[in-house]
Amino acid sequence: MPRRTNPSEMLIRQQLQALTRALPAAQKGDAHLLHEARVASRRLRERLPLVLPNSSGRKFVRKVRRLSRALGPARELDVALQTLDEISSANDVPSAAVAKLRQLMRQERQRLYAAMNTEVARVDVDKLRRRAVAAVRKAHHVPTAARHSKRMAAARERAALRAIRLRAAIDNAAGLYLPDRLHDVRIAIKKMRYSLEMVRELSGSRAMARIATLKGAQDLLGRMHDLEVLIGRVRAVQGSSSAANLRLSAGLDRLVRRLETECRQIHGHYMAHRKKLLTVCEHSVTATDTTQTKTQSSAA
Fold it and tell me: How far is it between the farthest Cα atoms of the chain?
């Protein structure tokens, strides 16, 4: 009779498989699978501390974080190129500026992918997958109702902590257009979303409304961040010898104004979304407090 996979193992097995499946094509330049590999690595970093809350778990998290960081610069440049392609057809975007920027970014892409592959090669991903699964099997070899209840409580507590940090990031950003602080909000949203996904998987719930709210806000702020990254690249070109002639420099100025206008528009959409985000945060914290109160009452 085949061995039944326990819930703790399932929490990481799927993400480990996604990571190992996507990485080879990602290293060859597949932008979509590079994104899939990076998302899987981030989800793993959220899940590993729950199923392996010990030194072994921290060691695996460090290795996965190394992968995430290795994939980051190449992924960010791929997104910048995609964003540039999307806006290049607009009438108010100067074609010469776009062409020059695309040329320079494609040259940089080759360098970033080479650096990424060097870093990824330092992590034996297949060995990481085997050892992580084996460690979880050993730690959770006897699934019991009490163990599942404890795991659920830990997952809810983690989601509540993410909610508190998200609420703090939202308060810190206030209603101002401050890219750095809004980037912190985006990261906090992403981490909370991954935590709620984990709670959903463990509980067997089909509820998606709160996760959808987080994803909507994450997509908004993600687009804003992508535009800000592209603005940074345009300004870097403006300050270099690559923008030696006045016509090209003027075209780059127009491109920056176009990108900044969209950023401001997105910020307005985010502000309309803000109250819903705070409601999601409040629900996660309240749900954890209620669960803890019930547990304490039962114990008494």
Answer: 78
pLDDT at 131: 94
Residue type, 26: A
> Could you say which DSSP state residue 90 is in?
S
For residue 40, being part of any structural domain is answered with: yes
Is residue 127 located within the same domain as residue 246?
A: no
Tell the burial category of 215 from Cβ atoms under 10 Å away from its Cβ (0-12, 13-18, 19+). Answer: middle
Residues of the chain with pLDDT under 70: 1-5, 140-144, 242-244, 289-300
What is the Rg, in whole angstroms, of the alpha carbon atoms belonging to the chain? 22
**Do 132 and 3 have their domain in common?**
yes
- Cα 186 from Cα 220, distance rounded (Å): 9
My answer on whether 187 and 211 are in the same domain is yes
22 and 70 both lie in a single domain: yes
Q: What pTM was computed for the model?
A: 0.86
Residue 236 belongs to a domain: yes
Structural domain total, the chain: 2
- Domain extent, residue 98, equals 1-139
pLDDT digits (tens, 9 = 90+) for 13-52: 999 999 999 999 999 999 999 999 999 999 999 999 988 9
H helices of the chain, where? Answer: 7-27, 31-51, 55-87, 95-120, 125-139, 145-173, 179-203, 209-238, 246-299
